[in-house]
Amino acid sequence: MSILNYTDPIIAKNLNKIDKWIKKKKEISKPPFYTSTDIRVSENKVVAVDTNIFPAGFNNLSNYFLKKSAKNIKMYIEKLNLPVERILIIPELHTRNPFYWDNIIAIKKMFEIAGILSDVGLIVDDGTNFMIEFDSTSDLKVKAATVDKSNNKVFVNDFMPDLILINNDFSTHFPNILKDIDQPVIPPVEVGWHSRRKNIHFDFYNSLVDEFCKIFNMDSNIFQLKTELIKNINVEEDDDRLKVANLINELKSKIGSEQNIFIKSNSGTYGMSVMQVNEGSQFANLNRSGKKKMKVSKGGKLLSDLIVQEGVDSIFGKKEPVYYLIDCEVSGAFYRVNDNKSSRDNLNTRGMYFEPISESGLNPTISIISQIGSLATGLEIQHLTK
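Above: the chain sequence. Below: its structure as tokens.
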């Protein structure tokens, strides 16, 4: 029997109480404008294995979910109690991936449905000014221009925004041009991967899960993800790899011999710097290719701190649900699918594609866990910006 057959009735029975709990936690944690959460569901666990504060992938949502997202955007803007009619989107710069620009087109479409004007501004470090068009997978192109700054406001050409939306995780640094500006910036750029740490996120996530389960008399092991941090690791050093290998074996002894263990950069994204093993010796004896993979992350950033994390099988086979939230409200979902992988593997790799999830396909347990992931990012942001 799937674990969802056990958890869904409990969620349904307590839905009003759960909604009140989430509302109360939102007031405390102040989750970011948007998040996406990768969920793994096994026979005995439902866990949020990754929550993105600057999500791409909106192009994979159905038109229904884009409209639902637009509705939640309007509600979010109303709560700001600010006159927001124009929004500047700050995207990733160093990519010509047409699917990413499909994502920006989808975000602009959501704003259009919500009655908000939007434009796209690029942040460059060398101070040059230019306009450019990016190709999508359709005939549509994304027009963008470099961002200028004057009188503590940023703008592109004659487009002066009321609010700045970041869709760039700024893996290596905080952009100076966004410092000390009068316009609100969402999510705060201070929490890009130059400052985020996965172990902090999962500490908050597991703590929220523990509180949730105590209230609703459920086993927290169903939803928690065992995560261990190991610092100051140089994968080129035999002794350091042995330290990681010992931690892998310790975690393995706690979760059982069947599950894989994942080793990840503590500050990484886009599925980069991720490795899965079945025993510690596999990491201790990494070949040149494995060392190279675990040496740097996005932007060429050298790795030092790693997390060792339990793997969770997928009852959906070679796919996993990804839920999208606006202001901690579920706004859409799809499946990530990778026919080249197994149900135990990392699916966020070459060969992945996406399948839609219908409105009726949204699962109550998975929805709640994605919300807890979003709440955890709110607490994480407070921790990083205090």
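The mean pLDDT is 93.
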